[in-house]
Amino acid sequence: MHDTRALVEKRLKRVLNQRLKPAVHRPVAPLTLRAWHVDGGQGEPVPPAEALPGGPAVAEGRYQPIEVGERWGPPWGTSWFHVTGEVPAEAAGRRVELFIDLGWENRFAGFQAEGLAYRPDGTVVKGLNPRNLWLPVAHPASGGERIDLYIEAAANPRLEGDTPFAVTLLGEKHTAGSQPLYRINRADISILEVDVWELWQDLEAVGGLMAELPEGEPRRWQILRAVERSLDALDLQDLAGSAAAARAELTGVLTKPANASAHLISAVGHAHIDSAWLWPVRETVRKVARTTSNVVSLLDEYPDLVYAMSSAQQYAWIEEHRPEVFERVADHVKGGRFIPVGGMWVESDTNMPGSEAMARQLVYGKRYFLDRFGIDTQEVWLPDSFGYSPALPQLVKLSGSRWFLTQKISWNKQNVFPHHSFWWEGLDGTRVFTHFPPVDTYNSDLSARDLAHAVRNFRDKADATRSMVPFGWGDGGGGPTREMIAQARRTADLEGSPRVTIESPAAFFAAAEAEYANAPVWSGELYLEIHRATYTSQAKTKQGNRRSEHLLHEAELWSAAAAVAGLAEYPYDELDRIWKQVLLNQFHDILPGSSIAWVHREAREQYQRIEAELSAIIERAQRVLAGDGEAPVVFNAAPHARRDIPAFGAAPTRVDADAAPVEAIAQDGGYVLDNGVLRVVVDGRGLITSVLDQVAGREVLSGPGNLLQLHPDLPNEWDAWDVDQFYRNTVVDLVSVDELSADGGTVRVARTFGDSHVVQTITLEPGARRVDITTEVDWHETEKFLKAAFGLDVQTQRAAYETQFGHHYRATHENTSWDAAKFEVCAHRFVHLEEPGYGVALVNDSTYGHDVRRAAADDGGTTTTVRLSLLRAPRYPDPETDQGIHTLRYALVPGASIGDAVREGYAINLPARTVPGAGSAVEPLVRVDGDGVVVSAVKLADDRSGDVVVRLYEARGGRATATLTAGFAVESADETDLLERPVEPDAVVGTEGGAVSLRMRPFQIVTVRLRRAAPE
Fold first, then answer.
1. CB 542, CB 352: distance < 8 Å
2. DSSP letter string over 757-788?
3. Does the pTM of the predicted model rise above 0.85?
4. Residues in CB range of 84: below 8 A, 6 or more apart
5. pLDDT in tens, 80-108
6. DSSP state of 40
7. Residues with a known catalytic role
8. Whole-Å CA distances, 31 to 68, 103, 342
9. Contact, 395 vs 1005, CB < 8 A?
10. Residue of higher predicted confidence among 469 and 111
């Protein structure tokens, strides 16, 4: 027969797009609109009560007439529309809906104007989004029903623009301008032509399936002929009257069952909503309300829909700002169809949050779901974070969860990840069953194209039969739609398609793990081969995070000590509030520096307030612990002793008479610093040219140390996110000196480059085994990348990078494409390099990005260069990224073991504090005796029982024994999970009095809960 395939397929596309879809809503009466354009100076966005009847906007006549076709909405503005009308008699007995188009572009599911409809009494109807333009009207028995609704509409600018990653000023309200962005396109009362809508869904299902089948497959041609017959039966002048007949022609192809071996897809309703990104946090609060309003309305109408939502923070926002929506959410949670997932406060970045912060993401998230809903979530849900720390599997298990889900690794640029379902093995050997949805999106529309891609792409199909597809429009798109549900129903058992079942994530994971228990194992981090610059962009956000984490550590430690001593109340509420703010700012587009200027400005302001609040809490506790008096008492919050001050204790200051002061000696235009342990040479260019370890008799450097290097930095796309490998092709060494001077044991170097200025101090303390460097940069470059390089005379094929509760190794060579792809990597407080018998560490107080490379030495062998990534200057989405003054601290530690690197990393981030007091020692609340075992947190129990909770981890990567001793009377000691719930002892092998004996495997995390004995 003749090949008419292209003819029919083009016919189908035109009829669908130009005839059927526009005919679904038939207008029968206009709506009358009045608008109140909220003045930003009035505290916009205003609470709904202010805009609804009974509020001042109505009482004071702020609403003014507006017509379809008029423009509205300056960037980031809010307009309230009062919508009225009357259902005409011809709509009696029909399904009536309002159709409202506020000016959307359908090519984007979100990222633009969005609305939320209210009844006059303040109850929420549903959201309005670019692909969800209707509002329900009760089925009238006769005409005459009055329409009276209010719509809160946000004019969010579309920052991604028509030219991707173009510089824009729309990311801050005060630079975004005032010209209206949107035009009201349509507002009417319509009849939903149900048969037309159903025919649309039928043709989408079979037409999409047809396009995905092989050209030689008989099923494809059978569908083609059925589609042709359907289109022949459709009268384009009477779509509603002929739609049923057209549907009848498709019955045969829609009722043929799927193949016995068809892939099984678990479809999960979802709406990925970034807690901030191209919009501020305040707008996310409203996005969540709009989307959840849509979802609960769909759940009311479609009993087969289930919806999964992560991020306890987003539930908390609904609870606080839209309690009537939260009540409906809670009802559906109770019914098991609105499903909390993720078990985290937000979908955080997992590369940069510190140990305790990563643990608290799970603690705060899981505890919220337990407290509000009685649900102990079992899956950690992170579809969009930028790579995954190897510490996560153990933390997942210790939180009481079982499974892990992401999708982002499908974005890899160099290497295709080999599995979709597998066991992920972490630092300590813990394994969690993990799934990457092969559909390669977390915003699927359940189209035939998405389903076919999932089947073709699934890399474990030889041994496993099922995968997951999260479906729904995200980031303001409104989540699942009734059209998606229709597609799921049509593909539940359809020849040529995978079998689609809408079900919960837990149902999928239980079945997937059961059938694939022998899944392959992936050991170590899940490194994302894109978005590597997120370790550096927005330095003040990252610095604020690091500082806040360590201040929280101090605040909990000293407050617990003061409370146990009976000297002060423990500040539960203050710490709880601050932790939640810090955790929110670890969201995967805030901490990585990939949000608009508004977001990062707010984050900087929040971190300043957090520092002030936590400093006050710390000072309050230390003052009562130090006692009355003016004698200086030094407090040590680090988990290692500092000179004569024990870990977690305090002691009077002591002058070390044996420590001779270091004096810089002028030499050859530079200076020499020598403390008898290290001899450091700074040349006339201000570069460190020699670090002689006098104990080991070994030169540490192979080339200049503390060499500032400047690279051009314009990635091909994703400016704030990416650094492309070609940036290394061009480099300028900053060696010009404005000033070189010395004062005691400190050398000062000043330089000017471009439009920027930098002052560095290089310091060697008496008796110290580290060289401290403080870098203050007044940064005014654009699209540049600033690095600090240290050439080290260490030959090694791997380097250790600190991550949560331990460290992991990455190759320093580029043997494979997997190794070469890691040209920019993340570390926390230290990077450590070692050859047998000798190691060197580089520690820092606020830097995350690093690169490490090997080079051939002139006399044979290889050397290694470690570079810290200090600052970037991308222009999208924030054109002023990192402009201004930054102070960064780092230190070179020669002769360092891993244990030394851990100790010095803590020391630079937790400097000692001196307060006036009685001049006597403050004994530690807890002590740990055991090499390699480090305490990461000391606090009072979250349940406010007064129990002391201590979290420890093995930090060197080897087995260890230790004794935890309390400085107070202990009634009992329990090993617990992260949520401080007792578990079967694993590391705790004995208790006697206030001493707890521990036996720990490499990198094991242990939480011990100490119940205080009642006073005698």
1. yes
2. EEEEEEE--TT-SSEEEEEEEEE--SSEEEEE
3. yes
4. 31, 32, 34, 146, 147, 148, 149
5. 999 999 999 989 889 999 999 999 887 77
6. G
7. 384
8. 9, 16, 42
9. yes
10. 469
